[in-house]
Design a protein that fits this description.
With 59 residues, this protein is mostly helical. The protein contains three helices and no strands. It has one domain. Helix 2 packs across helix 3. The radius of gyration is 11 Å and the shape is globular.
Length: 59
Amino acid sequence: MGDIVMSNEKINQVEIFEKLTRREIKQGKAAKVLGLSVRQIKRKLRKYKLDGAKSLYWW
């Protein structure tokens, strides 16, 4: 399997989504930090839980 190369912005997103899965921060806080809506966070979090970090990377 190949390596995934991510920018610092994507690495920051992974850290935020890890905190969300551990319930260290709330979805509203993550939305503000990432500049997204809570709806987008919910959708991305669902995918993140299924597919991991690669779900945050758009080809």
